[in-house]
Amino acid sequence: QVQLVESGGGLVQPGGSLRLSCAASGRIFSGYGIGWFRQAPGKEREFVAAVAWSGGGTYYDDSVKDRFTISRENGKNTVSLQINSLKPEDTAVYYCGASSRGVAGIAGLYESWGQGTQVTVSS
Asked: Which contiguous run of DSSP H or E holds residue 106?
């Protein structure tokens, strides 16, 4: 079982930046993938980015790849999501998930989820 805890969300003005963190614990093996998804009110959870737990191997949704950067912090069980040039449409609850199937862009392939962190982009 993998436990995940997200942090770093908040209220930010358009054009600003945030760095979200996902702290992972439990039985995580090298083949795992950690993904970030987001869910806006009334919408389905959508894929944002994923990274292979073993390092390297990043995968982004085309709509965010120019502004979002996912990385695993060396020596730490933490996956970060750097978000730049925030837009109001980025407003959502951001979740991280763990998939034993590796890097994946489908929420149904993730077995564990954190509680989410709210990102609100507004002036």
From this structure: none
d(CA 43, CA 22): 22
From 12, 45, 54, 68, select the one nearest 116 (Cα to Cα): 45
Strand arrangement of the beta sheet that strand 78-83 belongs to: 2-7, 18-26, 78-83, 68-72
- Comparing 22-26, 55-59, 89-93, 108-112, the range with the smallest average pLDDT is 55-59
Q: Over range 49-58, report the average pLDDT.
A: 88
The whole-number pLDDT of residue 49 equals 97
Residue 72: count of CB within 10 angstroms of its CB: 21
Q: Look up residue 111 and give its two tokens.
A: 């077995």
Q: Strand locations in the chain, DSSP E?
A: 2-7, 10-12, 18-26, 33-39, 46-52, 58-60, 68-72, 78-83, 92-99, 112-113, 117-121
SS3 of 86, please?
coil
